[in-house]
């Protein structure tokens, strides 16, 4: 055993436990200077761990093809678990408590086993959950920019939008991502005729703060200076107060006046004082 390369060591109390590439476990009593060696007759040992708890000398032993639980003082194998090569593999493991172990498996599951290693409390099979919602952050940057560009310039059906993509290799990807749009969004993009409405909607869809600010300002100033036709949906287009440095003088003055009124009203209590405050400003 001394000629074999140790793969893991663990110390608990006076006991030093080691495992090697030949599947041999060695426990050494540091105080008594005595050692015991026993062969697991399995693949190389990847990891050994003592169970938590005073006087608990059960050991968790991780192999390439499964795990064992041993009582190292009695040299007794309590239980064993093997996974065939064509199924899941154990990537790591440890003690979850003094009588339970937890295994991280290659199928992305965490399994908690009792000492018998028969049934686990989380034997769910790994499933690929389909992404049913358009999420621009997981789309490659080039594809996301192309998709945003096509959505902004398109004025028709989704199919016509995809046809505008000259790169046939990207058409399938764009079709897949556009299929994740909900029905209301698809209807809006198909029916809207306003470039500003479309671009602002897409900026919100892609959560692009720069474009959101740009199109809100564009819409506001086109409306204020009469370039944008008035309709029932644009009876008023007040900008948020955070745009104060980009506002015209009249709107900026109105916002600051409202702020002053609210501040003064909070600082007075009687109704007569409130009315006097409002009258003096308005």
UniProtKB/TrEMBL annotation:
InterPro entries: WD40/YVTN_repeat-like_dom_sf, WD40_repeat_dom_sf, WDR11
Domain of life: Eukaryota
GO CC terms in record: cytoplasm
UniProt name for this protein: Uncharacterized protein
Organism: Rotaria magnacalcarata
